[in-house]
Amino acid sequence: MRLAHRLLISHALLTAALLGAAAFSVVAIVRMTSLLTEVREEQLGGVIKEEAVHQAAWAVEVATRHGLFACEHNAQGVPAAADTLRHRLANLDALLTLHGASTQPLLLRAAQGYQTYARHILAGNTCERLQNAALRNERLFLAEQLTDAWINTTLALHSAIRQREKRAHDIGSSAIAVGITLGGLAVVAAWAVARWVAQGVTRPLGQLSALAHRVGDGNFAPLPEVSGPLEIRNLWADLDRMRGRLSELDQLKDAFVASASHDLRTPLARLRTAIGLLADGTAGPLTAQQQRVVELARVACEREIRLVTALLDLTRVQAGKTVRRDEGCRLDDLIERAVEEVSELAEERGTELVVIAEGTTPPASLDAALVERSLVSLMTNAVRVSAPGQRVYVTRTLSPQGPDGRPGTWARVEVRDEGPGVPVDARPRVFEPFFTRAVGAANADGLGLGLPLAQRMMRALGGDVLLLENANPGARFALVLPLGRGVPATTTPETTARRSDR
């Protein structure tokens, strides 16, 4: 699935949630509008009809009062008052005919009572009947009944409005509750979808970053496939193609280095022999100046031989052809040979080598060449960063288990110098090939192959080379190496110290 499709799904879900909330709000508004329509058409419509009947009946009441006033104070106005009463009675008759069936019973009885009363007044002597005490009491009762009927109508209208208000309030509350619920669900859905989309991108990107770091560290093994959007998979495919190409180039480089180193080793060996013959006087006696020149050539030749040997060892380690077991090999003998090889450089630098060993090491199955080369690399590196008069301490100890808790006899050879130590910013790169500033000394030379070569050699043998915390002063490196499972180590309470006095 492409990243665009994931984003489309996430936005579609959120849009659907918002549309659902909007649709529910529209439904709530429509229902509330229908309630208002019911109030207007049903309740207010009925009230308007009853109001017309009430007004017509009250108009008859008012006309009778005017007629009674005319009878008592203005006899000439009685005919006009009778005509007015007759006209209003006709209006009441028409309204009762039109709205009588929908008029509430109490109001209908009052209106019909006024209808009967007005007809009785107009059927005889108007003033005589208007002034009749019984009829006047009847009219007063009808007025009270008409007032009560209108009060009931008003109360009924208020009750209906309150009921509609309650229903509208319930609808509004439901709309708010549903809106909040949908909003909460939308937030949760947005978070879940965003997390899904983010994880679908960040997790494979993190895997690609780790794989890129692995390739950058020189590990060109096939990359495990990465899942995720199509764009991420395409990026993984590009990275895997780059890894394959770099692996080919690395193999070509290793093959070239191995071939060049092997081709250089034979002429250098012959050159060493020739220089040795010259130095020994086989070709004839040498003057002091000639002897000095031959010595310079010998030193340069030995340095080149060490470089070629280191390159050959490095290619052997990288090619996986690392372990050639020598049965009955003792680590102390290899340390002694390494000290002998480095002692000449230490003498040139004015540095003293001090070897401290606890007990004796048991015979073990080791690749003697790799172990000796690793020890020489650590000691040479320590001597190169040391100033004249300083010491390099080589301390060998034994342990019944390894650094990670694996059982067996393990040896630990710590090499400590009194130089400037390893700078903090250089510690992460100290085992990188060709990184020569890790030692932090201005007079350090070499190509930067000693430490990475020693570490790779020891890891090939199941051990390791570790960078320890700086001494005060100086740097500390430790070579840890398994000597065998179940092989007892012979230890004595005394400590043997050997110093280079060459």
Automatic annotation (TrEMBL):
Task: Say which domain of life the source belongs to.
Answer: Bacteria
Which keywords does this chain's UniProt record carry? Answer: ATP-binding, Cell membrane, Hydrolase, Kinase, Magnesium, Manganese, Membrane, Nucleotide-binding, Phosphoprotein, Protein phosphatase, Stress response, Transferase, Two-component regulatory system, Virulence
Compartments (UniProt record): Cell membrane
Molecular function (GO) terms listed?
A: ATP binding; phosphoprotein phosphatase activity; phosphorelay sensor kinase activity
Entry keyword Transferase: yes
Question: Which EC number applies?
Answer: 2.7.13.3
For this entry, the protein name equals Signal transduction histidine-protein kinase/phosphatase MprB
Q: Which organism does this sequence originate in?
A: Myxococcus fulvus (strain ATCC BAA-855 / HW-1)
